[in-house]
UniProtKB/TrEMBL annotation:
Gene Ontology BP annotations: protein deubiquitination; regulation of apoptotic process
Single GO MF descriptor: cysteine-type deubiquitinase activity
InterPro entries linked to this entry: Papain-like_cys_pep_sf (IPR038765), Peptidase_C19 (IPR050164), Peptidase_C19_UCH (IPR001394), USP (IPR028889), USP_CS (IPR018200)
Organism superkingdom: Eukaryota
Domain named USP: residues: 28-210
Keyword line: Hydrolase
One Gene Ontology cellular component: cytosol
Keyword Hydrolase recorded: yes
Descriptive protein name: UBP42 hydrolase
Amino acid sequence: EGIAPPKRILFPPEKICMVWQQRQRAGAGLCNVGNTCFLNSVLQCLTYTPPLANYLLSREHSRACHQQGFCMMCIMEAHVNKVLHSPVSAILPLAVLKVFRRIGEHFQPGREEDAHDFLCCTVNAMQRACLSANNDLDLSSQSTTIVYQIFGGFLRSRVTCFSCEAISDSYEAFLDVPLDIKAASSLTAALEEFVTPEHLDGDNCFKCDK
Ligand SMILES: [Zn+2]
Ligand SMILES: [Zn+2]
């Protein structure tokens, strides 16, 4: 609806498994090497995202990856396998620390960075890695990577004119949804607040061309 169907399917949606495929005990913790708690917390969230972890544990990515040099999916695959198979209680996330500046050029080693910013940059880097061999894909096909299917989507903004009821839709691709969690009592409430219709007036008023 409103978005052209993809010309190519990069990852078949039926292969995405939302529940753990193998029983997992909690994996290793991550050592802080100085102001890296923002990085560790993001890595832990991603490691315990079952559809992503299932895929990375299968090592399907690296078996087919032809990327020369930096590939965030190869890095995450190595990290998740290390964390979830480690016999020790805490490890250094060395593979990720090594490519820290490639994940986001603005990141400064030793500086406390913003966890949300780091998450967005990491998910974006994973998405770029999934697309690496497919440079000239339409937007719709780009949304068929495993990363996009787990984290992404399309936001539809719909404006309805009160005088003639004309509808105008616009779509925007996203890999994260910014929610106001301070004001909300639950995630569901925050999502409901995010999609609550607004009455546009004043400077925001929609100029209907009909
Ligand atoms: Zn790779
Ligand atoms: Zn109108």
